Amino acid sequence: MSAAGPVPTWLATGAQREAAIAARLAATGSPPVNSVVILEGMPTGLSPLADLADTSPMLQVLRIAPGCLHCSGNLVLRVTLNRVLRHPPAQLFIGLASAEHLELLRDFLQAAPYAALLDLQADPSA
């Protein structure tokens, strides 16, 4: 965990999740502060995050295999989060393809050990 405390973390869902995350990043300034974006699945066309990632060394975009992060036992997300949190970013975004199990995933992130490491924020909207 960083000296500044838990990492502000946003969850975004649906087809417009990348646009919502890009808008939130743009609101924090240009270039974005040290930020990590974890996205479920591949982009469905041009990603609004691609240009930001290409022009800012302070933005890391990680893509994980598609599939419900909750139903897969959170293993892929857990491994990815643990790697990211070894050197905590200033902000973290997690983009899910579907909101079907959003509340279950939110509960997972609000339990130990992530409750002490992440500060879940209101979900960004596109």
Which descriptors would you attach to this protein?
five-stranded parallel β-sheet, 5 strands, 126 residues, Cobalt-precorrin-4 Transmethylase, domain 1
What form results from the Cα inertia axes? globular
CATH-derived topology: Cobalt-precorrin-4 Transmethylase, domain 1
Our Rg estimate from Cα atoms comes to: 13 Å
Largest sheet: 5 strands, parallel
Query: Which structural class do the helices and strands define?
Result: alpha/beta
Which CATH class?
A: Alpha Beta
Q: If strands are numbered along the chain, what order do they take across the biggest sheet?
A: 3-2-4-1-5
Assess the beta-strand content as a share of residues. Answer: 15-25%
- The helix-strand sequence is EHEHEHEHHE
Per DSSP, the total helix count is: 5
CATH architect. name: 3-Layer(aba) Sandwich
Low-confidence spans: none
Q: What is the number of domains?
A: 1
Q: What is the typical, i.e. mean, pLDDT?
A: 83
The total beta strand count reads 5
Distance between the termini: 29 Å
The helicity comes to 25-40%
Organism: Duganella qianjiadongensis
Protein name: GTPase
